[in-house]
Amino acid sequence: MRLVTLLAALIVCSPVLAGSKDVIRTYPAQKVSANTYVIHGPQGVPSRANQGFMNNPAWVITADSVVVIDPGSSVQAGRMVVAQLRKTTKLPVTHVFNTHVHGDHWLGNQAILETWPQATIIAHPDMIRQAKNGADAFWLKMMSDMTGGYTDGTRAEIPTVEAANGQAFKIGGKTFRIHSSTDAHSKTDLMIEMAEDRILFTGDNVLNRQVMNLRDGTFKGVMKATDQALALDTRVYVPGHGKTGDRTLVVAQKAWFDILMSEVRRMYDEGKSDFEMKPVIAKKLKAYKGWAEWELNLGQQISLAILEIEQE
Fold this sequence. Notes:
By secondary structure, this protein is an alpha/beta fold.
């Protein structure tokens, strides 16, 4: 009789039990400052292999609450982030910053709100507008398609609070200062400076050892954002992808763009086409050959650089 009762209880409770796709494999959180943690996702595009998780969710423990930056690409990724966060503090999450509209950074919002329904989600006004105008459905489908359906069940929880350039959010004794742009990596980007601890969460305006996908942005904007990140001269830089580090990771990205753009400009003036430029530029950038997404994005960046030069 006890077995029958137990089986009946399991049947009744089955909708809320974790299924094979309710969570993703666990990634450890790294303490990068006194009260700040980052989960460094594997680099690369969403796939079955990485279960769609490939960004750098982070959180800051303040005096009375927790602030999360970019909780991941799906409800599954977000649940993993929540589980890791709970190992570091018992304080509640009260605020979430989404750095831009690309879904690998914000579709984990659902998992945060499952646990802390009153949390406030903050983003660039253009990110909110795009999400409401179809980017939510676009990214949900893209993540599902690229992971073979692994992220299915994710619901797009769109941010509700707009962040303005220069705005400072005072949360639990910490100051989160906004540096936003409309022409950088996605044209909906926030970089978030945590002033007291001198930490900059760059979003995808800065990556570490990864060739940037610039299909939605501009070279001019990203190079300006890179210079701004360096000018802030923070102690710790948390990139959108790749390992957290000091300003040397930003210097490396600046060098990449300076070399690529100057070479494209030189060869464009000589009448060269993009396919003629690529082997020359690849040789100039050979020191970066080990960067993630080299093959995927180098040619694309050259073509986009040509388009920007033609529009000047």
